[in-house]
Amino acid sequence: MRTRRQNIQLELALEPEAKGEARSAGDRGTEARMARADPERPAAGRGPSMEAVVQPGNLRKALARVRRNKGAPGIDGMTVEELGAYLKDHWPETKSRLLGGTYEPQPVRRVEIPKASGGVRPLGVPTVLDRLIQQAAMQVLQGDWDPGFSDASYGFRPGRSAHQAVERAQEHIGAGYAHVVDLDLEKFFDRVNHDILMGLVAKRVADKRLLGLIRGFLTAGVLEGGLVGPTTKGAPQGGPLSPLLSNLMLDVLDKELEKRGHRFVRYADDCNIYVRSRRAGERVMASVTRFLARRLKLKVNADKSAVDRPSARAFLGFSFTAGWTTKRRIAPQALARFKARVREMTRCTKSVNLARLVRELSRYLIGWRGYFGFCETPSVLLTLDRWVRRRLRAIVWRQWKRGRTRFAALRRLGVGKDLAAKTAGSAHGPWRLSNSPALAYALSNAFFDRLGLASLRCRPAA
Question: For residues 88 and 91, what is the distance between their CA atoms, to the nearest angstrom?
């Protein structure tokens, strides 16, 4: 462990910081002056500084996180693996530019990834050096800002999770708040107003170098189709700093909802407000929509937002049962996406090795179970377990192809002669026969357990 830390320190070429290096309390920039015009109290010389960002311990932590996250190269082509060697030669110069307020982030590289609900999500991939600096800045800023964020905010915050957000929503519903105002912000990350956001930052940060760095990351531009375009609004998804800045922006909404006495849960830009009646929900929807447009210049997506019963809406992949006892259940949309993904993974199976297919499928099942196993409807998981195994039986039946091969395989796996002959000669298709007694016996749950197939239940299927 000591050798590893020494290597990281060598790569960063970090020298001990001199005492008395703290920034002058009088440093202020354009954003700080803009914040003074706001009725809220500005940072007034306090708050995080650039010295804290480049502090050796903070940078070691940031470098370790960037390495763990891996990720694709930015526009300069530098990989995470190459970052260490670059820092060894260039960190003193980079640090000097950061402390001097002259560091300029490079444009991000535009990529698109498919969204679970359909369509694509645009991401901006920063260079690995910019990712390191963003991560280091985020750690310092988050430590200063996070304690002041709302207790109802759960996204991108240390010690908080989506499961906690779902549990909090369940508590509100169980307390009799039986209607939900489900707010969907239209293209939130693409529409963030830079001036409003920087005004909020300036209330907490007076160091003009740090303010300039943050604005630089926001306005660095986007490389797409070989051309660099300007970014006049939005916080590109893909960098470590954007989630924290989004929380800062939407903390304004949180504080307004708290002031009004609402019960709500927010995870990133997904906000649910819980009320006692539909009429109250419609009033809240209208007033919050006006507030967001006026105060933050954000638009509510009317097509995706609604006032409804919680059982009819999805929140972070979960829904809730109706009735006296409120239970967490997997939302229908999440179940449909699960089945679509499993079908995709098991579609081209004519020549695939069954053991390899099971290994690949199990990785997905374990991850999915780790999140959706939080539901309180285990019968759904049991049904999905059976469906996955039935699909695998149908795949094996197709691979056996001919009646003679199928008969021999069934007999080899212990099926009686008459039942094997009847099943092998059946005119029914693979899906119908995957539920037959012969295949259930030959390709039992225990058979798939021996192959290492993960179960969606807490314990492997017997």
Answer: 6
Please state which of the ranges 2-11, 65-74, 381-390, 412-421 shows the lowest mean pLDDT. 2-11
Under 8 Å between Cβ of 201 and 31: yes
Q: Which two tokens stand for residue 405?
A: 């091969």
Q: What is the mean pLDDT of the segment spanning 328-335?
A: 96
Which of 107, 124, 130 shows the shortest CA–CA distance to 230?
107
pLDDT in tens, 267-284: 999 999 999 999 999 999
Instruction: Report the chain's terminal Cα–Cα distance, integer Å.
Output: 42
Q: Answer yes or no: are the C-beta atoms of 78 and 128 closer than 8 Å.
A: yes
**CA angle (335, 341, 347) in 5-degree steps:** 130
| CA distance readout (Å), 434 to 381, 389, 425, 448 | 19, 9, 14, 14
Amino acid letter at 385?
Answer: D
**By CB neighbour count within 10 A (0-12 exposed, 13-18 middle, 19+ buried), where does 350 fall?**
exposed
Residue 20, by phi and psi: left (phi above 0), alpha (psi -120 to 50) or beta?
Answer: left
Instruction: Report pTM.
Output: 0.84
Cβ contact 60:88 at 8 Å: no
DSSP3 helix / strand / coil % (the chain, rounded to 5): 55, 10, 35
Distance between CA 282 and CA 181 in Å, rounded? Answer: 8
pLDDT digits (tens, 9 = 90+) for 154-206: 999 999 999 999 999 999 999 999 999 999 999 888 889 999 999 999 999 99
Burial 260-274 (b: 16+ CB within 10 A, else e): eebbbbbbbbbbbbb
* CA–CA distances in Å: residue 343 to residues 244, 282, 294, 347: 36, 40, 45, 6
List CB contacts of 419: < 8 A, sequence separation 6 or more: 410, 437, 438
Angle CA(108)–CA(109)–CA(110) in degrees, nearest 5? 115
User: Band of the pLDDT at 6, cuts 50, 70, 90?
Assistant: very low
Rounded to whole angstroms, how far apart are CA atoms 148 and 40?
14
Distance, CA of 449 to CA of 455 (rounded, Å) = 8
